[in-house]
Amino acid sequence: MVIVVLGEWLRSDAAHSHLRRRVDVGVEAFEETDAEYLLCTGARTNPEVPRAECEVMADYAIRRGFDPDYILLEDEAHDTRGNGYFSRLLVDEHAPETETVYVVSSRMHLRRARYIFEQCFDDAYEIDTHYAVDPDPNYDEFPNPRFGDSAKKTVSSSTESHLGT
Asked: In degrees rounded to 5, what are phi and psi of residue 111?
């Protein structure tokens, strides 16, 4: 088993509260299963932050006591499709006997992430998404520069925008 924690846009070179919660849930999943690795996935997506999402997540996990020998870093993915594709390459290389991949992300993102991971990992793997991070109203109203400097995206409005409703 491998636990895959999906990254998210960084605001600084430290993990923001939502990303910390994702890592916390990933560590919890690792401790509750017989997983071989905690795979942190996410590239350097914010040009104003000099680090990749996966590095920031791994640093946070290590600071809270997680053994770095059990962390895999995937720093090529700029989106969910990349998370799935590049994670598959690392799982095949480092944990070829894996049968189950647990994907950790925001609850509102997991249906899409599950579909993408199922396509990337095909029938050879079970994709489990029951380790989810619930939205935090304080986080979800954070102005995201990818949507414009003054735009505030809430869970419902970003979901509606994504679905075209």
From this structure: -65, -45
